[in-house]
């Protein structure tokens, strides 16, 4: 076993204040890391906190990881840990307003998120660096005094259920749960971790359980400071960060509990030597081999699983994948150890099968074991281990920064892994010891009697029938023991002469010189260093990050590549075959930190290469030569063609919101071939077609490139000269450089395209709603649009997702395309898409009123928040280069876009933003241009409850009598009009208002609620007896949600004094003025074209 460093009591020193302990040994960190760290432990509760001072960060962040996940769910309340994660964000005693936390973050350029794993729950946020203290104070309260209010509990149950239904038709989730469900039934790994209304509402209710009480019990049992880890990153000094962490988290209770542990392994003898056949949603063919494996976390010094995975997963000559491809059995192979929980892990080998590979899946298994047998007989190779260790050291040595919230979230999680404290930053990144005995021991777990198989395919091999269904996802499957043939083949295992260990990797870099020098101010844009009729090269030497890496993008412009659906498919097949033919050669480069990709695009083809710069030009030349000299292998062509065919077909089974995005792009771009059009052409294309087609593409090109990073200008120019010399293309005509354009909707038009979800089992529908505003080059409009999107983002999520529970996926923002931009809303929901469109328009009307009601201070806070986001510095070389390439690829070359936007934002008054809204965004505007795509489920839309009448005056009188005087009749009416799910929804909204306005405790709130419910009941009783009651009524209905039309249409006020019933808007019909698109081609032919972004030759 490896020797490991451990903490001792002498490594911790009590502060002079007596409030915390400090870890005194230096933390092992990357040579490229300029941040300062301090590890402390609070004296009051043993909460361990990692503090990070980053003097250059624009954003601050914090993350807290709780060592409890869904393995700790009670057997009869599966999903409770995940539900707790959802509810924790919904108000605290100190900050009771439900969206206070997210609103604070949104107003200061921030965001938050969380996730629940098998044994941990991780919460994190990011915010403008000046506002860390306020965010920390709010964040800490989640772990001190969360409310878990009854109204939020009821509504957030729907969010959890919606999240589950979002995943139900996703094969990755279905296979994951089936693998869990078919594990040891006495081990909690078999739990259903997401949860649903069935597990968290229906079943508990039937048993008389109070889900809120169970939630409180779960939180009280497990949310203890001693099993939490906190990470805080900011610009402030370590002393200041320490003071804040101590002050704000000292009251988190330490309940002295042990981290939950789960003895045994989920795969016992009963679950092993089994083969599971699963019917996927999509047309996929895959094989998974899963082995019970030792927990690798205590073995961090040697990481035997990393060495074993490196060899089994190798893709070079002599590898498993190389042999499988030669036999025509597989396309891809992946391998890795998967952490399950404390004490148990899995090693999984996943293989993408061909049609023939599916028939021969047992032979595929045999190939894998032949290689494992090779590893056993040859023994652990010190040279291979040294290669793996040195590459890990290189990656850590030159590790770059990434977004703060990703960093804090990851570190908070790593702190739970049991590494010695000095390794909290380096943990699994470095391999510290060579222990061949330990590696051989773990290799010994890869035995024929210690694994099981999962085969996924639409038609199971042989005569297997899918006779069973998994409980939570209704997945069809069959399970049986290994065949006698497979067991016998594995028993007589022999070596295969075509399999051998990888050779020396010539791509491992040796030159890391960056020529660093003092720079007063890094350059803000790349320079144009070559500009001819055939080629344009942009170049920027890295003067910010000083790492031995570089990125190269080359756009091969060709008008032929996308001219027809046939050409589009041929270009795609050409790039797929090219990558397939280079795979064995390029895999060594990928292992050594240098990778490439080439893909077809609207303009032609895009090649991207990135990584250590030392051998980058070697890989580039090889790729370009292969582009020129490619020989299309007919057998590999057939397999890749089949792969592409399935990809086109499987798109129909993507989530509904993805289809909404796809078709909206189709209707707003001048040229876009659909998958159906491409699929129609695919069958007739042959290998000979590709062999004759690609030289035609390469014969006439315009090359545009960016070389960015640790490369001298002369090297960059040599690279591009060599590319041109190898391909020798003729130049394009200037008219052939005109790119694609947007389609512009007529002013005052409203369009709707309706389409059915193709998967009959998907309960969700999807919508994208777009309001076109103008061209992306119009800086004034662009700034106003981005500001409106900034203001709308948090209230949109709060209203449509949190309060109305329309669905788990709710998004608002800016959609940008070449030649156009607009405000977009995306929702995936069980509701009818017409209802969703009405709710989006209702939100827009409300948004206008919210902006109008903003104080100047509130408005300027939003402006400054957006400016802060736009001025945020790039975190690493890839981010900076990607930004430059976006400006080049778009054809606009607006490298100073951020400065232009910020200058515009500083001039926008609230009045001018409202004028912009009224002109371009308001659904009733004569100048607005709107299009929406409705992807409607074949299932019956979710019902939203019966009509429910509410007497506004009766409720108001009741509230005033109880001392709640701040709410007017109009306030009440506006609140009740939010309700769209009958009585329960109205009660939830009223309860929220009472919490916000009365500031009473839970008992007082419930007392008031009982009186309000009685007041609502009086209305129902009166209507049943005499059919009329004095006062103003709001009718809440799934089809007709009440709203005063005067707000939308500028009509007369419907007041309490008038004694008239509030008018309603019909949510069962599209808003007035919409035209349904029935002929997509005819529609597109009638639209105006935007100006093109023409790549000019003069700059």
UniProtKB/TrEMBL annotation:
Q: Which GO terms describe its molecular function?
A: metal ion binding; metalloendopeptidase activity
**Pfam families, A to Z:** Peptidase_M16, Peptidase_M16_C, Peptidase_M16_M, PqqF-like_C_4
Q: Sorted alphabetically, which PROSITE patterns does this protein's record hold?
A: INSULINASE
- Name all Peptidase M16 middle/third domain ranges: 396-681
Entries under PANTHER family matching the protein: INSULIN-DEGRADING ENZYME-RELATED, NARDILYSIN
Region described as Disordered: 1047-1078
Q: What is the species listed in this Swiss-Prot or TrEMBL entry? A: Phascolomyces articulosus
Q: What protein name does the entry list?
A: Metalloenzyme, LuxS/M16 peptidase-like protein
Task: Give the similarity note.
Answer: Belongs to the peptidase M16 family.
* Coiled coil regions, renumbered to chain: none
CC terms in the record's Gene Ontology section? cytosol; mitochondrion
Entry annotated with the keyword Zinc: yes
Tell me the Gene Ontology biological-process terms attached to this UniProt entry. peptide catabolic process; proteolysis involved in protein catabolic process
Q: Which domain of life is it from?
A: Eukaryota
Q: Where is the Peptidase M16 N-terminal domain?
A: 49-185
Q: Where is the Coenzyme PQQ synthesis protein F-like C-terminal lobe domain?
A: 787-885
Q: Which UniProt keywords apply?
A: Hydrolase, Metal-binding, Metalloprotease, Protease, Zinc
The reply on keyword Zinc is yes
Q: Which InterPro entries does its entry note?
A: Metalloenz_LuxS/M16, Pept_M16_N, Pept_M16_Zn_BS, Peptidase_M16, Peptidase_M16_C, Peptidase_M16_M, PqqF-like_C_4
The Peptidase M16 C-terminal domain covers: 212-390
